[in-house]
Structure formats: C-alpha cells, structure tokens
C-alpha cells in the first residue's frame, strides 16, 4: 500500500479518524503530534491491507503507542468492542489517530462511548 494523502476527520479535540493507513504514513502522524494509533478493523478485511502487526511495530519504533480493536464490518460494534474502546481511551496517550476501512467504525466507537469518556 502506498502512502497516499491522509484525509483525516477530527471528531474530538484529541481524536481523529481516517481510512486505512500504511507504515509510510506513520512519520507524518508523529510529526502532526499524535501519541497513539488505534486500529478498529480486523486484518485481512481487504486485499493488500497493511496488517496491524506491521503498523504497530513501526509505530512503536517511532514512539507511538498502538492498539487494535477488531470491529467486524458485517457484524458491527459489539458491547465488547465498546468496552475495549473505553479501556483504550483511558490507557492510550492522546491525541489518538484512529483508523479502519473508511474511518466510520472508529468514529462510531467514539460517539457511542462519548457520554462515558466525557
């Protein structure tokens, strides 16, 4: 996957969402001041998708924390996914750069948890 420009959407002061990223995006994410990356999609969802382990390894080399929550697109967000998000929100340094296929799952998780994460 090549490093095409990132079209990120800010959903909170310390939380941005976008579609799938690749390792070449990580230096730009660091340079923009993010402290963590959060993946909300399973590996292998699309052909050519960079797997989370690859992104996490490079992210950690660059000083980013990395976390993954497998939200299955055809099933949707489960109560367990929401609990995992709230735990990640409490544990990850912010600001957080979150991604999935389009950014929608990452944004929806935040919206669902917003009343609980204040």
General description of the model:
With 118 residues, the protein is an alpha/beta fold. The protein is 36% helix and 17% strand. It has four helices and five strands. The protein has helices spanning 26-31, 52-61, 79-91, 104-117; strands at 9-12, 15-18, 36-39, 65-68, 96-99. It has a five-stranded mixed sheet with strand order 1-2-5-3-4, with helices on both faces. The N and C termini lie far apart (36 Å). The model has no long low-confidence stretch (mean pLDDT 93).
Number of E strands: 5
Describe the global form: globular
Strand content: 15-25%
Treating each run of at least 4 consecutive H or I residues as one helix, how many helices? 4
Major beta sheet summary:
5 strands, mixed
- Write down the secondary-structure element order: EEHEHEHEH
End-to-end gap: 36 Å
**Which stretches of 5+ consecutive residues score pLDDT under 50?**
none
- Strand order across the biggest sheet? 1-2-5-3-4
Mean pLDDT: 93
Helix content: 25-40%
Query: What structural category do the secondary elements indicate?
Result: alpha/beta
How big is the Rg? 13 Å
């Amino acid at each position: 996957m090549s490093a095409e420009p990132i079209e990120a959407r800010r959903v909170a002061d310390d939380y941005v969402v976008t579609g799938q990223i690749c390792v070449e995006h990580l230096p730009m994410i660091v340079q923009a001041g993010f402290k963590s990356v959060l993946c909300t999609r399973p590996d292998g969802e699309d052909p050519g998708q960079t797997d989370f382990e690859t992104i996490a390894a490079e992210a950690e080399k660059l000083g980013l924390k990395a976390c993954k929550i497998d939200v299955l697109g055809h099933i949707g967000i489960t109560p367990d996914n929401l609990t995992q998000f709230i735990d990640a929100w409490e544990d990850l340094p912010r600001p957080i750069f979150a991604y999935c296929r389009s950014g929608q799952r990452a944004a929806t998780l935040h919206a669902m948890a917003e009343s609980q994460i204040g």
